[in-house]
Amino acid sequence: MAQPLPAGKLKVGTGWRYSKGGKHAAFDYPVPTGTSVTAVADGVVLACHDGASNVPSSKVGAESNWVLLGIVHGGRKASVLFQHLSPGINVKKGQKIKAGDLLGKSGSSGHATGPHLHVAAMWGHRTAATRYDYLQDIGAREKEPKGTAANGICIYPPSQVYTASKEGPLASGEVFVSKLHFGTTNSDSVKRLQFVLNNIKLKDGKNLGLSGNYDLATKNEATKWQIQKDGCLPGSAAADGNIGPKQAGKLFGPKYTIKA
């Protein structure tokens, strides 16, 4: 699996306009296929689409994979569009989302020249049919605005609601080792474990839902980490899919506080 979008300033490809002057009003981040795409804030999935291949198309409007996330920003409803994702998105319409939850993986589906993540932001909670409203009524000579565009729809730059340096609440915090065993349910420590495992490259690794439940899928991924990264022998007590104190220190790193 690829690493998540890095903290700090990300390289931006296309911004307010395309190189030939056409309207874009979004941010394009040229990141490798398979880069984790996470929610920028708590919200709900207003609409989404999955199933388009990662073969880019030169056709405008070509089917792509995307997630439209409804959030509240500055006391107002807003929508954030994440587009060109790889097939196999991690969410469904109506699902409630926490900041930092995995939405899917970046890709090159739809009208694209290569792998990148397209992010746009609009006022209001939108639908699938209105997810491109940020492009409406932008003047031919309108320059990049500092905030809301003249159409009153687009929040630009999207970094006003999408700050790359914020990794989300699961990228740090307290982890209780007593919760890191098979059968634990509804645990923030398990959510942090699932988040960390999703962002480690493992052979035959699988994406985990950030459920907080230490289910069989979570146990399997933890076992892979124990064998592939911690050097434990398959079938040994140290590779049983449960994470002990020493392993927790290695797995989570300095951003987390490990507790008994």
UniProtKB/TrEMBL annotation:
Matches recorded under InterPro entries: Cell_wall_metabolism_enzyme, Dup_hybrid_motif, M23ase_b-sheet_dom
Domain of life: Bacteria
Transmembrane feature ranges: none
GO MF terms, alphabetically ordered: metalloendopeptidase activity
Stretches assigned to the M23ase beta-sheet core domain: 23-123
Name of this chain's protein: M23 family metallopeptidase
